[in-house]
From TrEMBL:
<keyword id="KW-1133">Transmembrane helix</keyword>
<dbReference type="Pfam" id="PF02518">
    <property type="entry name" value="HATPase_c"/>
</dbReference>
<dbReference type="InterPro" id="IPR005467">
    <property type="entry name" value="His_kinase_dom"/>
</dbReference>
<dbReference type="InterPro" id="IPR036097">
    <property type="entry name" value="HisK_dim/P_sf"/>
</dbReference>
<keyword id="KW-0812">Transmembrane</keyword>
<dbReference type="GO" id="GO:0000155">
    <property type="term" value="F:phosphorelay sensor kinase activity"/>
</dbReference>
<dbReference type="InterPro" id="IPR003661">
    <property type="entry name" value="HisK_dim/P_dom"/>
</dbReference>
<keyword id="KW-0597">Phosphoprotein</keyword>
<dbReference type="InterPro" id="IPR004358">
    <property type="entry name" value="Sig_transdc_His_kin-like_C"/>
</dbReference>
<feature type="transmembrane region" description="Helical">
    <location>
        <begin position="51"/>
        <end position="67"/>
    </location>
</feature>
<feature type="domain" description="Histidine kinase">
    <location>
        <begin position="311"/>
        <end position="522"/>
    </location>
</feature>
<dbReference type="InterPro" id="IPR036890">
    <property type="entry name" value="HATPase_C_sf"/>
</dbReference>
<dbReference type="InterPro" id="IPR003594">
    <property type="entry name" value="HATPase_dom"/>
</dbReference>
<dbReference type="Pfam" id="PF25323">
    <property type="entry name" value="6TM_PilS"/>
</dbReference>
<feature type="transmembrane region" description="Helical">
    <location>
        <begin position="145"/>
        <end position="165"/>
    </location>
</feature>
<dbReference type="InterPro" id="IPR035965">
    <property type="entry name" value="PAS-like_dom_sf"/>
</dbReference>
<protein>
    <recommendedName>
        <fullName>histidine kinase</fullName>
        <ecNumber>2.7.13.3</ecNumber>
    </recommendedName>
</protein>
Amino acid sequence: MTLEGVHGRRVLRLYHLYRVTVGLALVLLISSDLDENLLNLAHAELFRNGSWAYLIINILIAVLIQRPRHLLQVFSLALADVILLVALFYAAGGTPSGIGNLLIVSVAIANILLRGRVGLLIAAVAAIGMIYLTFYLSFSRPAAAGQYVQAGALGALCFAAAIFLQGLSRRLQQSEQLAEQRAVDVASLEALNALILQRMRTGILVLDKQHRVVLANQGALTLLGRNELTGKVLDPHCPELVRRLQQWLHNPTLRPQSLQAVPDGALLQPSFIPLHRGEETHTLVFLEDISQITQQAQQLKLASLGRLTAGIAHEIRNPLGAISHAAQLLQESEILEGPDRRLAQIIQDHSRRMNLVIENVLQLSRRRQAEPQLLDLKYWLHRFASEFRSSAALDQTLHLETSGSGLQTRMDPHQLTQVLTNLVQNGMRYSAQVHQLGQVWLKLFRDPDSDLPVLEVLDDGPGIPPEQLQHIFEPFYTTDNKGTGLGLYISRELCESNQARLDYKPREGGGSCFRITFAHSRKLS
């Protein structure tokens, strides 16, 4: 067994200090020749030599035994201390000397360090020593015969001190162990909370009054597109979030508007909570990625649209087919004049356009669930380009440029074909409006920032005016008289159902650039 705990080592140092102090007091007493005036010494020479021996021995013990490895050392120390004090008790003349009180203190401290019967043994040695030496002293000094009651009382006090201090020490030790266990539990909970905080997808920020970031978890850094924010002022890094914070401070009842911290990043919904830390007031910021919620809302919208179109499809297509068939028969009539034939042709053209709108809406509502497969994009694009070129017109040219290796993703190949065909055909059509030869470039590469595969579809057409950019992915929005306004909307929906993203980028030097950012190959299963 060893002396364990900070409490035990502290008591041992106090015990050393106490014994050295008592030894110094005794040496000063005999050095000033006051011992014969203050004490009725029974053996003066023994008392003087014993005082010096007590001081020297305790100084050596205090230096040599600072961290005892075994309780036997502590027991030997306490036993030697009691024996020396009992000897001084005898030399000083018994109970009138007051050294018996020093024995009680020594027994009490020894029982803090020792447990059970061992501590009581020290008390027994002290009590027996005082009573026996009082008896032995009575032979040379008849007056000592009246000290038995005082000696017995001192012995009883030694036992009382031992029992009381052992109980108190046991409670202190239990309290210390409980405090250590609680400290370990608190440290474990703190580490667990820190791990949970860092693994949360919800972004969490703590800002002070100067908008300095006190705490930022990994989710917040990812959503804001930053590597480190702790200790930095948020204003230059995310001014939109600071603007939402200021609006909330002016009117906390208003729900903050969503924001996009980085281009092509996720749509974030901030929320703010005041956080009081002593006299300081911080702001707790939660950042929720609502892109998935938006996607679910769109899915519900598509489901509603599907039920609507399924209900009205037969009601529209049947009369529309009759109108188209009647216009065709009317156009074949020999008695029909030229202007009337032109009117019949207009009826047929608009009937075909209405039928195309219905087909696109039905295709949107009947869209099957994505069945992602692991695709080697480099190989897949070469095959797509070869098939497209084999059926393309003579005035259409498709260019393909790939860079990097290991460009893989998980996506439904049929839906990817539908998306890419729509984008390439749109690019060819708009390129032909400016040039005699319609050209589209496909560029596949790995994004250096996100390490995700990216495919760009570029054309050299007139591009999209800035005032129309925010509407190009809206359903039924089109600038072409013959278009339905559903092509880009369906393409983006198909990409998002495969956890890819379709965005528009103005092309340097004119034209358009539609960028598909694919998901990581391990993201979908």
